[in-house]
């Protein structure tokens, strides 16, 4: 069964015959030089970048755990990632209703090495199998199951599909995380009732640019923001409005750029209060837009005009009835709220600055932001596993939650074709649906 003679396995003959185009891609894929084989256990397995592709103790039991995720009456199924080949084998053996099993190769180099070591011809020869290599724009199609280790070792061609799958897999964990925050947010909502009653309604801003050609710049706090403040200042001089997320405020003010609107939503005191512990006097005409679950100390630190906004989460259902206010969407990040506000204000042109969703300069935030830290201590393996493409097509290190925010923003942009989105940064993540502003130096 085990064989490392180059291109000698029966499985390769099957692929050459059934999927010649895929074989050509496999044949041309680069060699993976640092694969280790854990051969001391009962079931040898590849170790790549410290990751075991399958259990070296009981890979069959590991594979069977995934079978519970398959609908009992499924006639077609997508398997994302091959691993060591145990999961496709068990899916075919245990689901007699399957007429078609699409198996997606997430890493062509690893798969080619697998074919040279362990015979995969039993499942590759099954007529129900359809072998695929995902395109760069591939999205998950249900029903599906995943070989989890393959997500961490995905090729560039599978990066976007990997991101969408990771978002779906982590959705339940995110809900649990936000659920744990609800106790804090419920108390802070009560603490802020007087402010909610006294402060303005974000809906007052909706539609104010419906007949106005002015652009809105939305400033995130990504590392690329520091390079863009002069561009933002020039756009403001020409009439653009500036909406900034709270953590971008200090870097902007340091360079003499005053936002027209600041948006804050973080319920944690230490998360947002440092953003406002500066001289805010220059911002006497700036409006703070906030979720009422924000900490009272942070809201009281803002001495000027404030407006309340709610998210569309059911958490706000009751207070939306008793204290009606406008709704701003978020998918977990304040940048989503800022962009949704710009859209609802009626602009047809939005320029994104510092919306990096990555670590393009080895920093977590723009220099001057309170929580800016050096993230170069991310080890090379972690940087390789979590990445996005920048405008030039180069990989930039990221992390799962930021990638999730990016993909949700891209979906949001797709649903707002009436707005033209430009990206001022060439260093941060490429955002699908935006075009790069060539005026950026």
List keywords for this structure.
alpha/beta, about 450 residues, four-stranded parallel sheet, disordered N terminus, 2 domains, sialyltransferase cstii, chain A, about 15% strand
Describe the structure.
This protein is an alpha/beta fold and 441 residues long. The chain has two domains: 10-164, no CATH class; 198-436, Alpha-Beta Complex (sialyltransferase cstii, chain A), CATH 3.90.1480. The chain is 36% helix and 15% strand. The chain is built from 17 helices and 18 strands. The chain has helices spanning 10-18, 20-27, 59-67, 86-94, 108-117, 121-124, 148-152, 159-191, 193-198, 225-237, 249-254, 269-272, 296-300, 317-322, 334-344, 380-385, 400-414; strands at residues 36-38, 45-48, 51-52, 76-80, 100-104, 129-132, 144-146, 200-201, 216-219, 241-245, 261-264, 287-290, 306-308, 349-353, 387-389, 395-397, 420-423, 434-436. A nine-stranded parallel beta sheet has the order 8-13-12-11-10-9-14-17-18, with helices on both faces. α1 crosses α2, α3 (59-67) packs across α4 and α8 crosses α17. The longest helix has 33 residues, at 159-191. The termini are far apart. Mean pLDDT is 89; it is low at 1-7. InterPro entries: MptE-like. This is 6-hydroxymethylpterin diphosphokinase MptE-like domain-containing protein. It comes from Solemya velesiana gill symbiont.
């Amino acid at each position: 069964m085990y064989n490392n003679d180059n291109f000698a396995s029966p499985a390769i003959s099957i692929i050459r015959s059934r999927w010649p185009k895929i074989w050509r891609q496999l044949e041309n894929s680069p060699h993976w030089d640092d694969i280790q084989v854990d051969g001391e256990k009962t079931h040898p397995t590849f170790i790549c970048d410290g990751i075991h592709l399958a259990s070296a103790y009981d890979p069959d039991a590991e594979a069977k755990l995934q079978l519970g995720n398959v609908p009992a009456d499924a006639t077609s199924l997508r398997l994302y990632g091959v691993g060591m080949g145990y999961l496709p084998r068990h899916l075919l053996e245990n689901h007699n209703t399957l007429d078609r099993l699409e198996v997606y190769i997430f890493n062509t180099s690893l798969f080619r090495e697998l074919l040279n070591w362990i015979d995969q011809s039993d499942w590759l020869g099954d007529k129900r199998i359809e072998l695929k290599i995902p395109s760069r724009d591939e999205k998950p199609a249900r029903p599906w199951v995943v070989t989890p280790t393959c997500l961490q070792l995905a090729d560039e061609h599978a990066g976007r599909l990997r991101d969408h799958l990771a978002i779906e897999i982590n959705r339940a964990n995110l809900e649990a995380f936000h659920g744990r925050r609800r106790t804090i947010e419920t108390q802070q909502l009560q603490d802020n009732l007087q402010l909610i009653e006294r402060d303005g309604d974000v809906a007052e801003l909706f539609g104010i640019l419906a007949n106005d050609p002015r652009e809105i710049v939305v400033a995130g706090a990504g590392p690329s923001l520091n390079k863009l403040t002069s561009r933002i200042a020039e756009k403001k001089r020409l009439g653009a409005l500036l909406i900034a997320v709270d953590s971008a405020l200090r870097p902007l003010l340091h360079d003499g750029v005053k936002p027209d609107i600041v948006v804050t939503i973080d319920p944690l005191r230490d998360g947002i209060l440092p953003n406002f512990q500066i001289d805010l006097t220059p911002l006497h005409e700036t409006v703070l837009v906030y979720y009422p679950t924000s900490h009272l100390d942070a809201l009281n630190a803002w001495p000027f005009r404030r407006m309340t906004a709610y998210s569309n989460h059911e958490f706000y259902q009751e207070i939306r009835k008793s204290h009606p206010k406008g709704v701003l969407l978020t998918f977990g990040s304040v940048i989503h709220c800022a962009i949704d506000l710009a859209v609802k204000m009626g602009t047809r042109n939005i320029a994104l600055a510092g919306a990096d969703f990555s670590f393009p300069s080895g920093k977590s935030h723009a220099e001057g932001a309170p929580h800016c830290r050096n993230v170069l201590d991310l080890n090379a393996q972690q940087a390789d596993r979590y990445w996005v493409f920048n405008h030039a097509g180069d990989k930039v290190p990221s992390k799962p939650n930021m990638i999730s925010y990016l993909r949700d923003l891209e979906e949001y942009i797709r649903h707002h074709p009436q707005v033209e989105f430009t990206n001022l940064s060439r260093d941060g993540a490429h955002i699908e649906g935006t075009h790069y502003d060539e005026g950026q130096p």
